[in-house]
């Protein structure tokens, strides 16, 4: 229940984040769980620093230190950002640097209605919910029935189900539901063939216009999407990529090698041919291995109905590029 | 189930007093539309906006030359259709490559003077360009690509349409950054967007910002995410007498929302908190009359049982503009007590209860400021500090590492790339922005 | 003549680099030049810091400071790197970060034979010559007759013509000349349609195999090139991008704002509400505007003849991507 | 006109004593092929190389299981044809997306034990994988993309071919960096390639390198660009008794070329230069006998009129390996005087005449080392200093800015991105290397 509003203390039913030596773990605060045999047993969470009786978390203040047999950790209240780092992966997920830009580019503020397809593991969905509450709403669709079901259960468990409707639906084939026509401020697509969802997006966006964003790992998807956006009267079409890089800060001591003494004959005792001392720097080292690509974000504005230009077909010689109905794409 | 923002029709009309965005091709400009016939400058053109009032946002206007085109003075006229040069000008011949083109500066048969005359006489940009093409020796030998490039260049020069957009966080942040990144501490949109998510801003809670260099952009971003008609509040601390609020005002926030951004001088607010009075002078102290408006404010903060009622008379040097800007929001009951006194009290009351997030975007060394303000943040809550170079944050990182009151310290920087997506010509933009600034983030511990 | 070997002093006929307040200027050391009227006059080079009589450069040591009326500069001997920064642009040119990687990826060492198309402004050509001399050779082709001629003249003037053959030739249409068959260690293409030059590259590369590199600004060119490389039996096909970023180092003084004094009632004299002092950092600032893209480098190995796999056609459904004979591309 | 490198046929044959590169799919490994039946380890496989001697470089070998496959011991057999899994396995059915696939861990009907048996019994990787597919419930519902991904993964696991390549700078630099970037100071290929061009290395001239952490990679790069049968020379200074030369040796340079890399201890060479003797001890000094070999060396350096002939007896602690490694090149005339004595004299003579470039790739703070060695560089010549983090170079930059003996100071870092180029799946690689190190470059002034 800890996803809804900030709270001071841990209650039963909360999901909490255990921060332990640079790692995050999400823990459901349930005093008891069922074991493999179906028996109800005490809920004990195993950490690298020793076992944690989950019951003991109840009532402690968020931000508190908790002692483990081989060390200690801290209990934090989950945010969508922490959730992205701890959630169970059912698909590839979108992380905070992209999520931040998606929220920004979709012009989302509390009160907006936003459509998302597909739901995936719900990483972005949590961030969308946070941004549009309390009066706005998120409609999220996934063509994978099981995934959609799990997402719904998660939203219930996180006490944010009021703000989100998660449906199993192949929106490429079936479109968003009729009742959404003209209701959305923004549409986000993370689909293998996003360009096939654009006409549905146009239907769903409000008469006063709205924003569109598509997340695609490959450039071919972007190329098709941009063409179809243009044909559908979108303006300000932009494609971008965001990479966040973490810098490792340390105090580094490095040797100093004096060579100047060699200019003069040394005294009887030989000078050691070793570094003559140390100096230290506060260094920010860039990581050897770092995310190199997540996906391209293609964003665009659908103007209000009165200002939409008639859908223009691009010139004939380009048409092969847009005739993509027979291209099949798998899940990423 | 379907609720959402109910937007009034009038919200979509251009009104006097609105901040508006003027878009001409890819160029965007922010403008306070103060009076019906205000004039803006776009490039070397001077454009009178008379007639846009009452039109819908997103409308397109054609620029009409006032006298001759040399003067570069224009009025505007609502239009339905934007003419695309490429659609108007039919190109009959293209070469397959540029091998036969020698750039000797002699390819255009028209003289500079003739082109100037053409510009003054022609009604439409496409007419000018059609003449230029007709009189070019090389245009028809150029490849289709080169021709398109040429048209794009000319279109940029002669494009004669404007669009009026409603500002929002995205357009304001882009415009301010593009105009002069130094004025917003090089705070690029990707980094700005991450500040908002990193500290988990949403419609509830009390959030603390110390900003001394973003021209109100960070406050605008946070308040925008807190939303209209919600309970969230932003305590916006700044040094100096006046907060920078250009971006905040440009958002056209309704009064209700703008009021929940409590802008205070950092010294006054902290003095109010620690000493129960917000000026250093001990003279002229008097009881604050409990007016309706400040009582109302006090009610928002529950359990307020502090006897901090003493506030000083306004220092004569204190900024008129702030007061002016927010005059309507301030207590009309007692004209002698400026609004900022109540703001300081209000802020101190919120500080008392501690806040849910901390954002620092400063020009100063962030260390002192962070160490002071982190005391007002509840345990378990996130913070983020922005700086435009990494070294001060590296220092602060090491200082905080040696303490035990923060967790999950992370220093990050971003890299953002824009793409040109065109058939046969898809590639990253050839110029990119290399300076995104740095974020140091973490969580406050108990 | 100063492009061939290092020398100590400036001679007449040298090209020298004037380094002036972070700017580089290439100057041909000729004592006299012709003016517009065809009259022979003293050669005076105008700089932002005052006029420079070119005659005075003769005999001075490279690395020397030269005085100008409003300041001073330094005279350096040109390297291919400095030349890239000062040469007259006749086309878009390739700069040192890409040039360095091209030389590296082509496995070039002194003695290699390398083919380049097109010559362009000769930026890369100078670096190729330096690397393969004294026994190697560069063959460079351009379909633009005038450009090819100017390049030849430049190589003569720079005294490196022994190491390079610059020809006007449309190598896509006509291939490299017969005499180059099986002679090259490496082939470099900077052409609008590089994939159309690959079969010619295969012919030109030695029986013992060699390396290939193509520089293209757009991804569509890369996609076609990679497919055709695969069809032609190349292995280790890689596409990469290099961006060099300059960091601006300065000592930056920033204010320190003390807030702790507010905890206590101050003495009679009010404390100033201003920064309480300064601190300074040696900062390396990243530039606001920096090259964001030059081109994609696609590199590959052609194995020795005995180890080349038979040219495999890719599957039929991909064939539309490789049927590109009718695509026209302009100059970049 | 057509000259070029004349390569002997024998250069293209795998010989005992060569360093060789073993490539298995995308994995490359460097190996000194010391004896005909030497064994290498690739992943968990142990492979005996018996039989590769005399084969041509670029040949492909099939891995043959020695006994049962569990032991993971292989011999190799020259082969003509590499089998591509995708060409062998015909896939009849693909789903259009993965919507119906639930990953419940139950999709493979074969048990782990059955798969293990299969691996031991099957002759070819394609047989194993065909069985896996046939027994999978979900494979044929997967999309073509997912199927290909699956095959790629399996191919990697069961791929049974090796290729033997001849090492060169590119492969050596890639292998060393990939294996352990820390062992080459994070010196990535883009940065390495720029070191070579920045200091304008070519076949002529004398070049100075101080390297204390690249395992010979920088020396290999510079000597490679100086070339075979040319006049260029590299003075390669290092701290400690022994130079790191792994990469230098792996290049299989001919003796003539390797000799022009004069590797010297920085202290000894500088002492020789300044004091005319290369050890600090004053005992046991004797005249060097003028042997044929050291006279030859002295001739290379013209105008040598310095009376620096005194050298000391070898210090007993001095590394045997260096001497051993280069024994054949050293003066056979007088076994009592180790080669390094002559190298120090030779290096001092070159220093005397000053050099044409300076490269520093050190683990120490670069400032002292640069300030000392820059004195040996001719005016107008380039230098470059590599360091794996920027802060020491920032410091040095400021120090040099305040002096007037260098021009065009520039601190740079690189960013390199690799791409996956495949039909419908073109994108940058999802993991990139963020640490390229930093270069500080400039020109020495008079």
Automatic annotation (TrEMBL), chains A, C:
One of its GO terms (cellular component) is tRNA (m1A) methyltransferase complex. CDD domains: AdoMet_MTases. Residues 71-301 form the tRNA (adenine(58)-N(1))-methyltransferase catalytic subunit TRM61 C-terminal domain. GO terms for molecular function: tRNA (adenine(58)-N1)-methyltransferase activity. Keywords: Methyltransferase, Nucleus, S-adenosyl-L-methionine, Transferase, tRNA processing. It comes from the Eukaryota. This is tRNA (adenine(58)-N(1))-methyltransferase catalytic subunit TRMT61A.
UniProtKB/TrEMBL annotation, chains B, D:
This is tRNA (adenine(58)-N(1))-methyltransferase non-catalytic subunit TRM6. Residues 303-331 are annotated as: Disordered. It comes from Bombyx mori (Silk moth). The keyword tRNA processing applies. It is found in: Nucleus. Residues 303-316 have a biased composition (Basic and acidic residues). Keywords: Nucleus, tRNA processing. Belongs to the TRM6/GCD10 family.
